[in-house]
From TrEMBL:
SUPFAM superfamilies attached to this UniProt entry: Acyl-CoA N-acyltransferases (Nat)
Name of the molecule in the record: Ribosomal protein S18 acetylase RimI
GO MF annotations, alphabetized: acyltransferase activity, transferring groups other than amino-acyl groups
GO CC annotations on file: ribosome
PANTHER family given in the database record: ACETYLTRANSFERASE, N-ACETYLTRANSFERASE DOMAIN-CONTAINING PROTEIN
Ranges where the N-acetyltransferase domain occurs: 2-156
Length: 164
């Protein structure tokens, strides 16, 4: 059984490692820069050592040692990160974490959520589109050697939801 909980300070290293594996799996097929950095410095170099993921949520296997299987991290109306560990993919964790992230953003009173996705990552773009996200027409600057695409989704703020 899968459980969700907020990231704790002691989870930071495990979450950074999870995100690094996710970056490598998602971006290495089309990013020479990601492949080069990982080969030169290891996957830990793909995520800053100072990133603590404050306010993020992780999916963990209930009853097991709290090894994160996936993470979602939001800030304001931005879905900053959503990664599922490659061996844990295909179990519905991405969908679960996405819904948690969307609820977090709506609870802050935002009517619209936004995210940036790698343009060459057709799988991620299709995942978000299947869950109601659409291309915003914006091309945010990227951190890597590939283009990013902005996506948006209309949300119902928490104070306007039907309590039933």
């Amino acid at each position: 059984m899968i459980g969700l909980r907020a990231v704790r300070p002691e989870d930071a290293d495990a979450v950074r490692a999870l995100v690094a594996r996710g970056i490598l799996a998602a971006y290495a097929p089309f990013s020479p820069e990601v492949r080069r950095l990982a080969a030169r410095d290891g996957t830990a170099a793909l995520v800053g050592a100072d990133v603590a993921f404050a306010g993020a949520w992780i999916a963990v296997e209930q009853g097991a040692e709290a090894v994160p299987l996936g993470v979602v991290w939001t800030s304001g109306n931005l879905l900053r990160e959503l990664f599922v560990d490659p061996p844990a993919q295909g179990r519905g964790l991405g969908r679960l974490l996405l819904s948690v992230g969307e609820r977090e953003i709506a609870a802050r009173g935002h009517a619209r959520a936004r995210l940036d996705v790698a343009a060459p990552n057709a799988r991620a773009r299709a995942f978000y589109a299947a869950h109601g996200w659409r291309d915003s027409g914006e091309a945010p600057p990227g951190r890597w050697d590939f283009a990013m695409i902005g996506m948006v989704k209309a949300l119902i703020p928490a104070d306007r939801r039907d309590p039933a």
